[in-house]
Amino acid sequence: MSKTAVVYWSGTGNTEAMARFVLEGAEGAGAQAQLFTAGEFSPEKAAEFDAIAFGCPSMGAEVLEEEEFQPMWDACKTAIAGKKLGLFGSYGWGDGEWMRNWESECKDLGLSLVSEPVLANETPNDDNADDCRSLGSALA
Fold first, then answer.
1. N or C end of the chain, less CB within 10 A?
2. Closest by alpha carbon to 19, among 138, 118, 126?
């Protein structure tokens, strides 16, 4: 059985909702899945999982959240090499630049994503929820 981690940071609850949909998709596809906030996750934790979904909303000038999520992400980059990965997050302004930059960083690091990142404008709608579940299923 595949072990999948869903790791997120959320300021308004939108990215948390997306994380829960990703978790549903992974569990529905038969994975043993676990939800973590960014503050609960580490490179040591990453080693325990076959697949990881990372979720973070767009912050400031379209960047990852800088106090908790970015330091966790930076610490985990080498520990996640070779694992199945997925990205998701919400935004309220801009055009998704933060996600394009994050996806590009993954490619530059040689990390492989199982699908296109999932984005939601503000509160995830039904289509976003389905996309998140599909991401979870792909990780499983």
1. N
2. 118
- Return d(Cα 80, Cα 71) in angstroms, integer: 15
pLDDT digits (tens, 9 = 90+) for 20-67: 999 999 999 999 999 999 999 999 999 999 999 999 999 988 999 999
For CA atoms 135, 51, 55, 98, the dihedral sign is: negative
Six-digit token pair at 87? 């990205």
39 φ, ψ (degrees, to nearest 5): -70, -20
Residue (of 140, 115, 118) closest to 34 by Cα position? 140
Whole-number Å distance between alpha carbons of 7 and 13? 14
- Say what the pTM is: 0.97
